[in-house]
Amino acid sequence: MPDLAAILADGPWVTLGLLGAWHGVNPGMGWLFAVALGLQRRSRRVVVSALVPIAVGHELSLVATTAIGAVLGAAIDPRYVHPVAAAVLVAFGVIKFVRPRLHPRWTSFRVSHIDLVWWSFLMASAHGAGLMVLPVLAGWSPTSLDLAAPHDHAGPVALVLGDASLPTTVAIVRGVAAVSLHTLAMVLAMTTVAVLVYERLGVQVLRRAWVNVDQLWAIALVATGMVTFFT
Amino acid sequence: MATTPFGIFGAGGAGTWQPDPTFYPSPRLAASAPREELAYIVTLNPDAIGGDRAARPDALVVADVNPSSPTYGSLVGRVEMPNAGDELHHFGWNACSSALCPYAPHPHVERRYLVVPGLRSSRIHILDTKPDPAHPRLVKVIEADELARRAGYSRPHTVHCGPDGVYLSALGAPDGEGPGGIFLLDHERFDVLGRWEIDRGEQHLAYDFTWHLGWDTVLTSEWGTPSMVEAGVNPELLLAGKYGHQLHVWDLRKRRKVQSLDLGAEQQMVLELRPSHDPTRAFGFVGVVTSLKDLSASVWAWYRLDDPIFGDASARPRPGEEWAIRKVIEIPAEPADPDTLPPALKPFGAVPPLVTDINLSLDDQSLYVSCWGTGDFKRYDVSDPFHPKLTGNVRLGGITSHGAHPASGPLNGGPQMVEVSRDGKRVYVSNSLYASWDAQFYPEGVRGWVAKFDAPEDGSLHLDPRFFLEFDGERPHQIRLQGGDASSDTFCYP
């Protein structure tokens, strides 16, 4: 069993942090809902406290996606892992192209914290937040670990959690570390933007700053799928 | 407005790069919008409603409302519907400021399509205001049988652009009876998604609807089923108090009716609902056409018992008892010589005010009230919603008074549909109600017109002598302003 430093060495920290920050600043991922709830009750405290369940829901979606990816990766014949992962990413990206505004139906403004967890989980899942983190985690090369078992045959998805070449403990430690970093970055970004908009900028900032990144996102998914297929 | 850099790939409509510039997060920001340059008006052709199939169809016409334009105050565009006899009535946009609501945002759709139902034919027309906003194009027609098949409804009326789709109300069922209710269209392809209600309780009559998105609440009002209204007002039903006299309160999330507010059976026809635009507030106004007691008309204010300002913010009303309503304006009938009255009114010897439409400015400070019977158009200061103060009154048309416009001789019909500009400085009114009812109250035939008032901050009302649209044989009904108006948009931020 290698030590913690070895397990976590060469982690894709910057990428994970940037993805977290990216999810954090996206108005559709929750800070805007928190601001609206705060404005409705005229309370900054409401803004900040709403961010907690939003972050929890988002990370639950991430954990669910990566866990599903890991289980599938372990279950599928290693030869098909790359093509299947690529197909999923490309298909999701194409759906995002064709129906960019397809998302779960939600019609409620007066929400409990439990509602917010569920809302955030749905939005993050529909947005494909976990699908973007999955390849990053999968690309985390195990070569820095002094592992006896050969791993060349394993696909990137398989390496996230369940592949035999990577001890389960190592995979779980890595997963927890990655999700924690992503969460930290997202919460920081979310809180900063939410408080800034609530206290200083006002919601008029939405009229110009809310740019349409749906298609950039879709392209990123398709591109990641392509890379996965050809590697 | 640019489309996205990668718009070419977006087969399903890529959306815009930035939010539609006519979407505003708050009513205050919307009020600072540039002034409207075009007004969309639906017109009906009474000959076609009367069964003359050779008559021209109803139309959507476009008026120039830009005072520095050489064609100011005239019609610059016209689109006829494909069939005659639709009875165009109310209409609305595919998308508006509610697209910015935080829980289901789709900020990159465009306010682009007008959804124009035929109240009599039950056809729903989709018109595209791009690329030339003065000449919209018909792009889709939803036939009555599709509406009936997918939603079980008929006679579509009010159109509101919601955060997650286009919501419409319908007067009743395809057989002309009730219940009426609400159904949805998806706001990209305009497919009928189905009926909205999950549990309507004893609600049967329908007419207008609105919502307080900040409070997860929908309100619906009551007129009558198609069979009660299409042949004209039925005096027996009216005198028996059978037309609508209730407001229904619904849980927007659960799609269940949670409360009914009964104004009393003598209050007949509870029509246009105008909610506060500030999403943190929970009140609004509704007009009642007439009281059986004395033919007066009235405006009522509904409110939540825990509204932060004039309710008791610390109140904890029980579910199902959260809303209340009270009469805040009463307008008396005016005695008249029976010889001057249409047959329907001769027995009463009076002209009822007939409040058929009201409208609330975006700042929730000015309420406009149309008295289609007497011809009065009234402006109230409603900064205290429970104690409106009359600050302006102009008479145009009217059953016996025939008030004149500076640009015309005596008029008939009366101020009816009202629309207020986003900045609250201009108010537009049209004069036709509903073909079969026009014939009862103005049997000589309503001659269509649209007038414009200037509404300065001092609370007064002034007719614009340069703006008077006259229609030849057609009758104008609802007016919508380019980029949105005081009754088209809902806001999720104060």
Q: Which properties best describe this structure?
A:
heterodimer; A: 231 residues; mainly alpha; 10 helices; B: 494 residues; mainly beta; Methylamine Dehydrogenase, Chain H; 4-stranded antiparallel β-sheet; 30 strands; 36% strand; globular; disordered N terminus
Descriptive account of the structure:
The complex is a heterodimer of chains A (231) and B (494). Chain A has 10 helices and no strands. Chain A has 231 residues and is mostly helical. Chain A has one domain. In chain A, helix 5 (78-98) runs antiparallel to helix 10 (214-230). With 494 residues, chain B is mainly beta. Chain B has one domain (14-481): YVTN repeat-like/Quinoprotein amine dehydrogenase (Methylamine Dehydrogenase, Chain H, 7 Propeller), CATH 2.130.10. Chain B starts with 26 loop residues before the first helix and ends in a 13-residue tail after the last strand. Residues 1-12 of chain B have low confidence and may be disordered. Chains A and B meet through helix 3, helix 9 and helix 10 of A and loops of B.
